[in-house]
Every structure is written in C-alpha cells, then in structure tokens.
User: Fold Carbon-monoxide dehydrogenase large subunit from Stella humosa.
Amino acid sequence: MDPSLQKFGIGQPVPRSEDPVLVKGHGRYTDDINLAGQAHAWIVRSPVAHGVLNGIDVEAAREAPGVLGVWTGADLEAAGYGPLKCAAPMKNSDGSAMRKPERPALARDRVRWVGDPVAVVVARTVAEAREAADLVALDIDPLPAVTDAGAAAADGAPQLYDDVPGNLVLDFHYGDAGKTAAAFAEAAHVVAMRLVSNRIIVSAMEPRSAIGEFTGGRWVLHVGSQGVFGLRAGMAEIMGVPAKELRVLTSNVGGSFGMKAPPYPEYVAVLHAARELGVPVKWTDERSGSFLSDTHGRDHVAEAELALAADGRFLAVRIRNFADMGAYLTTPGPLMATTNIIKNVPSVYATPLLEVTTRCMVTNTTPIGAYRGAGRPEGNFIMERLIERAAAEMGIDRVELRRRNMIRPDQIPFTAASEMVYDSGDFAAVMETALETADWDGYAARQTESQARGRLRGRGIGCYLEVTAPANKEMGGLRFEEDGTVTIITGTLDYGQGHATPFAQILADRLGIPFEQIRLLQGDSDEMQAGGGTGGSRSVTNSGQAIHEASIQVVDKGRALAAHLLEAAEADIEFAAGRFVIAGTDRAIGIMEMAARLRSRPALPAGVPDSLDVSHVSDGAPSAFPNGCHVVEVEIDPETGTVEILRYNSVNDFGTIVNPLLVEGQVHGGVVQGIGQALMERVVYDESGQLLTGSYMDYAIPRAPDLPTIGFRSHPVPARSNPLGTKGCGEAGCAGALGSVMNAVADALAQAGVDHIDMPATPSRIWAALQAAKAA
Assistant:
C-alpha cells in the first residue's frame, strides 16, 4: 500500500490541518472582515420583558453625529420582509396544527423579552452607532411577565399572544396511552421523578457577527453559520426573494453548538440597511448582548416514570414534560422537547412501551434553540436517572439492572419503542468495558479513603444511545484544480469540528489522492447545489457518503479516460490506491498524473471525459446510533457542598472512526459541556423578566481546574446504514456526561440522607440539601 495512505487514510489520528493557522491567530472570523466603505450597526433592544410598544422616537438618534440611518419594525414591514419562521411541522395531540406566533425581525406592537430587538442604528463607526442608539426613546407600557413554563400554564398567567390561549403553542403526545397505563397498572414497582434540564447560555467563543452587502442587484451576507445553503434558503424566504438573489459566505466560526444555525433578526436588519445606504453594514454583538440575543438551550421539566416487573424488567416509560420555548419559536422550535426526547429516551434498553406528553409554552425569556445534543442528552439523562432510582428502591444492583434490560446483539436490528430501528451495537460489551476501565470493583477502597478524610464519595454510570439527525441531501463535489490540488465541495460546515482533515482522509482512502493536496470548500452558498449544514452529529456520515459516492463517479470517468490513454478496453481497467491499471500488466497511470494531462486540454475522442470533476448530490444517510457508557466518581465536601470529579472514564461506539484524535477531542468537549450543565450552569430571571445571570460574573462555566482527566476508549461496531460505517460523535459527550455525573452526585449524597438534587448541583444547593437532611 502507498505509505501516504497508511499515514493519512481512514482510522489514522491525523492532526487538524487548520490548527497551525488558528493557533497563530490567523483565522478569519466574521468580525475580522472589513469591507471598503462599510458602516456599523447597533441594535436597540427592549429593556422590558413584556409590554405594549406604543411608539419609537428615533429623531434624536437620526440627528446624532455620524448616523447614516435608523430603522424600526414598521420600516422593515413596509419593505415587505416576512417573519422569522419555525420549521417544525408538529401537530397537537388532537391532530390540529401547532400555533406559530408571528415573529417580526424588529418588534412592532409588543415586546416579549428583555433583548427583543426594536430598532437598528447605522453610523460611520461602532462608537457613533452605539451612542446614537442610546438616544432612541421607547414608549412601552409594561405588562406582567412570566419566565417559567409551568407558571405560564397556570390560570391567570400573563398572556404573551392574543392568538395563543394559555401560552400553549403545542400540546404534543406520543405513544399508546391505554397500553402504557395498563403496563403501569400491572407493574410490580413504579419509580417516579421530577427531573429538571436547566436553561443554558450557549457561550460560543465567538459572538455572533454579520455584514450585509447589496451589490449587483443581490444581497451578500457574511456571517458565522452552521451551513450556508440552508441559511440562504431561510434568509431568502424572509427577504422575499429567490435564493439566487442572496449569497451567504461563512469563514472561520468560533463555536456554535446549534445556536448559529438559524436566521436571526440582526441579519435582516443589516441586509436592509445595506440596500438602503448602498454601503456594506457590519454588526458584531458584545458578550452582554449575546447573553440576551443568542438562543438559549434546554429548559425542560419532566415528570418521568418507569414501570418494572418484579425481576426488574422494564415494562414502560411515561413522561409528562413542560418545555419552555422562550418568547418566540425558533427554527427547530419544539423538536428538542418532543421528537428528540422520544427518539433518545429508550437508549440501549429493550423497553416495550413509551408515552411522552409535552406542553410547549411561550414565556418572556430569550427564545430556546438547539444546543449540543438538542434533546438527545435530555432523553438519555431521564432514562439513566430513572434506572438509578429503580435500582435503589428495588434493591437490585445498578449494573445488574442495566444488564437485564439491555438490547442484545442477537436482537439487532431492533425496533425500539421510539419506532427507530437500531442497525448495530453491542451495548452490554460497551458497558462491561467501561466498568473494567473505571476499576469498578476497586471502588470500595477509594470510598473508604474518602470517608477517612470526611468526604462523601459517589460513583455513577451513564449509558447512552443517540439517534443522529435523519438523512438530508448533501453535496459531494470534487474539483481537480489548475494548481494540482483537489477541492472537496460539501454543504456541511466546520464551526470547530475540523472537517478538512477527516474529509481529506476519506478522499485519500477512496481515490489515493495525496492528503496534502486536498482542500475543502464549505462556506460559499454560490458553490452549493445542496447542503444540510452541520448539526445532529451527521457531518462525517452525510458528507462522507457524498464524498464516497462522488469518488465512485470519478473512478468511472477515470476508467474511461485511462482506457483511451493506455490504449486498452475499459473493461480491463482496474483502479486501486490511486492508480488505473490494465489488469494483469504493469501498465498504469496515476489519478493525479491523469488530472495533470487533462489540464493541458488534450484532444479526446467523443465519449471520453475531458475532466475528472464531479458535482454530485447524495440523498444522505439515515440516522445512526452512536452509544456508550461513561463512569464517573465524585467527591463532595459536606462542609462547603463543593463537588470534585475525581475519575471520568468513557467507552464509546462511534462505528468506523475516521480520525481517532478528532473524535476524542469531540468527546472531551461534549463531556465538559455536560459537566457544566450538571454542576454549575443555570440561567436565572427575576420575576419581572430581567436576566440575573447576564455575564460571566454571574453565570459559571467550567474552567480547567474544574475538570478531570477524561478517559476515552472505543468499542466500535460499524453502522450498516452507510458505506463508511460511521455513527457520529459530536454531541455524545453531553449525552454520557449528564447521567453519569448526576448519578455520581446522587450516590454520594444518598450516604447523607439526600434522596434527590436537581441540576445544576451547585455547592450552595448541595450544602442546603445536606443541612436539610441533617435537620430531618
């Protein structure tokens, strides 16, 4: 085999090719872009969580130094722009369509959360725009606010919309209520828990930024995104123009986790201002603004129940869920709290019945959007906490209870209660490997040592199975360039994952093209024919399949061309390791040599391809089922309530791993975000709707000293649903972390008589729970 393929092919831990540029500070993020003659925008936001917007006085702002223009919601409405839309096609339990209240880019008659954008000021400099924005006078009659989904459903709660009675946008139901009720009635034991998935600030390293241009009769939007093709479609619909009249460009992106995927009001504002002024208009958020304006994550409260037979066999799961949507519905809307919960709650267990009821409520808070896992970590968390409680109440060892209920390899393909069909996996083996890796049997000695120091030590298991996003059309373009490189064109988008390296590894494996000669193009909508963007842990699967299929087309074209160049029958041409060979001979031509010959534009007979380029659109791969088991040990100081994670081990099945180095990094990132949600992150509003956790002085995220060494092992069982056998890994760390960390905390606290604690398990909450247990 070509030594370069052994070094850079599938399965090799190749460092990310973009890292040298990024670590030197040479990345090109949206705020690094400055266009000739550009102006600067500042967004005026509502300081009131809920109120009637009687009027906006912009005259003083218009007269301020450097100001080029000020626009309000009335101006955008007059320009003919449409509302921002929720794409989720959800139905109520009675079959009626969910309510989708209109969301204008700039508020017109009512404001519904602190941060609701009401006007845009554009000036020559950022400072001038910001100072002028302070002169915009808002006439708002305050109304009572509600910031909690459960409170929003109560009789007499403040109503956000006249056409959304009871603040209920969706009353969702899944499952057979009769069969589920019968299973619970027949159960030998039932466990019930109220489980909170706390609201999260997304905290991407790079705040959102956008530059709008209007040139040559079309708009251009420079913006951090998760996929330019999909964002172009969404923005074109809002702007009321054909997609070809709008181009979206994305350079480097400093994190997103779901948040930067959809259209935002600010993008409409800068595009409109650019057309009105005839100059590019740039907007970059500050961190304080991003806390208000970026979509938040999670925010569900589940009343969850698990029915078990006398031997511990699972009979049914029933969940009644309140989900906070925030003030408006985002593009994914309620999907996280409905469909994604359903798909992921069953996890690796053979539970026959599942019933999920979700009430999706609007509140006077920042809108909720996708956040790493988007319902998948929540579903797995619910299941793992129920299992842990069931084991304790029934006196069954927690490991044994899981073993009894895990889906066996001989049951696969397995149709879960979610109606998803698992195509691969060896779940028990993954758990056993995790227990061995974590030295589960040696725990007693470590616990004794902790007790000697006055500490509470606990351990937790978090098994998980994620259902990745379903198939979507994905581009797999291959272009052999004049400079001797090969460009992969695909509609996913790297916002920190490191796509360039694994995609190049796939192409090197399939076509034998030297790794260092492969480039990646993702961020220009003009180059796209399709693209589902990056989200749902599907990039390497969808783009990988598209690259695989495009490679087959390249080989087909190359075989016909090689037959001509080598003067042989096409049927006698074989391809392997980057070379077209006449079978049974040593006569051959390499694919890169062939591409070089084509660059000289040789005369070719009819029917012989004059290019190896391919512009292919794949139908995409179906959902895959990454799974794993995380095992955690924590120690709690009962005097302070402080939690220290002492040991963290994970064993994961991601199917075929293209690049182990990058996969391990993805798991580390997901685990850290899971630890953050479990132990410290929580958005808090006061009763008037003011955000109390509006900066990193008030909102905690994990720092290096808070984190353990995160152990990582693989137990791959290749997927059967895509040609590479991949399963996706980008969000799995969160799914494994929530259950394992909270089970470990609960295990430690149980020794002091505390039977439950909600996320985040902060020191103050733990201390209070311990004091209450002492007093009981």
Summary: The longest helix spans residues 539-565.
